[in-house]
Amino acid sequence: MRSAPADETTRDRILSAAVLRFAREGFGASVRSIAGDAGVSPALVIHHFGTKDELHAECDERVLAEIRATKSATIDEITSGQGILHRFANADEYAPMLGYVLRSLQSGGPVGRAFIEQMIEDAVGYTKHGIEAGLIKPSRDERARARYLVLSALGALTLELSLDPSRDPRDIGGTVRSFLATGYLPMIELYTQGVFTTRRMLDDYLLYVPDPPDDAAAEPASD
Predict the structure, then answer these.
(1) Which of 7, 26, 45, 170 is the most exposed place for a label (fewest CB within 10 A)?
(2) d(CA 126, CA 141)
(3) Residue 140 vs residues 133, 137, 147, 204: alpha-carbon distances, Å
(4) Mind listing the pLDDT tens digit for each residue in 146-167?
(5) For 182-218, what is each residue's pLDDT tens digit?
(6) Alpha-carbon gap, residue 24 to 126, rounded angstroms
(7) Do 160 and 174 contact (CB within 8 A), yes or no?
(8) With contact defined as beta carbons under 8 Å apart, do 14 and 38 qualify?
């Protein structure tokens, strides 16, 4: 999350501490540990939020608001292929928020779902831009392709974080940068060269599946 303002209220300080603690430990983190991080008593946390579940819900809202604000600030980056994940990876101030999102992905929370849906929308947008520029081949189902690519990338990143977890959410930016560094070569090879030397598998598959909805597809360019 961004640095707290000097006049941050006690309630805001608790929220900031909770986002950091949830990013570090997951949503099983105790109210006592959050209170300690915020420099208040557990009773004061309960006074402000009622229950840990309600605190969790307010953290979700705060992170979703940050995501929306970040999206608004990165439209130009998105159209050039630099999506929200790249911004998070390259700005340490966003690393705790990304850690929170990844925890939410692991737990199936609303923040994780909203983050994925936003990334899919972004991918559809800059893929369309790439097609219009002649850099990307059209797909029979643009949204399905964008969804697959986003889920593949986030799934791999989530596994990377699970296999090599960091105790400090501020190190998540480094984890993401490391993931991108090791993953870019195979990703670019797949995108530019493909895997198979023939399209036989695709042709066989297309014999047995219905055409996608009209609004989902553009006729792909022939090989």
Answers:
(1) 7
(2) 15
(3) 18, 10, 13, 15
(4) 999 888 888 887 787 777 766 5
(5) 777 888 888 888 899 998 998 998 888 877 666 555 5
(6) 32
(7) no
(8) yes
